[in-house]
Amino acid sequence: MNTPKTQSAGTISEAQTVPESGAEDRVAAFFGRYGRHLALLQATVATCGSLFMSEALGWPPCVLCWYQRILMYPLVVLILVGILRRDHGLHLYVLPLSLFGACVSLYHYLLVKTDWLPPPPCVDGIPCTVDYLDILGFINVPFMALTAFLIISFLMGATVVSEPADSDESPSLRDGQALAAYAIIALVAVAFIGWGMVI
User: pTM of this prediction?
Assistant: First the structure.
């Protein structure tokens, strides 16, 4: 009779550890399957948002804003092509742009919100210290760009760590992943165009 009790106790301890590893596996599988699509969504929202601010709201970008745009806009195309081609090396192209963009955004944020950094030399056009948006005292345009770059970097890193096992399938422009990528870009673009027409 002692043997069944020992086996049931062992079974209980094994059952207690299964949900934890199962949850970790589900999170890893989620990022492995959808991390690139979420990064594409973030890059598309950031790109359309910056265009909306300059074209619909009439906020002209400063020099540092242009640098951040130069680093953000290509990410939409790179991530989209990486999804369509199922490129396992996509992080090699995306992470340098997103991490460098995060550095530029952090510098811009500190320049606007603190006096730790010396002001940049005089340039023609909009000064880099202008603050078009101030929500809760710390959320502004450079902060939103920094957040977008960091989210993209995290998602690409998580995708590399949790690559799905079925990722060796041949790419097709009409499979579910490709259609989801097209839908992300189309829906975000339509939303921002519609919002711009309302304003």
Answer: 0.73
- Spatial neighbors of 169 by CB under 8 A, at least 6 apart, are 86, 175
Sign of CA dihedral 27, 44, 82, 61: negative
- CATH code assigned at 126: 1.20.1550
139 phi and psi, to 5 degrees? -90, 115
Split into its structural domains, the chain has a count of 1
The answer to whether residue 8 sits within a structural domain is no
In this structure, what token pair is assigned to residue 95? Answer: 């992470």
Q: How far is CA 16 from CA 4, 9, 11, 20, 67, in A?
A: 18, 11, 9, 8, 50
**Residue 5 domain-assigned?**
no
Residue ranges making up the domain that contains 81: 34-198
Backbone angles phi, psi at 118, to 5 degrees: -70, 145
Q: Where are the alpha helices (DSSP H) in the chain?
A: 2-51, 63-85, 90-113, 141-161, 176-198
pLDDT in tens, the chain (199 residues): 555 554 545 554 444 444 456 777 787 788 778 889 899 999 999 998 999 888 888 888 888 889 999 999 999 999 999 988 888 888 899 999 999 999 999 998 988 888 777 766 656 677 777 777 777 877 888 899 999 999 999 999 888 877 655 555 555 555 666 677 777 777 777 776 776 666 6
Residue at 93 is within a domain = yes
Rounded to the nearest 10 degrees, how much is the dihedral formed by the CA atoms of 131, 42, 72, 165?
A: 150
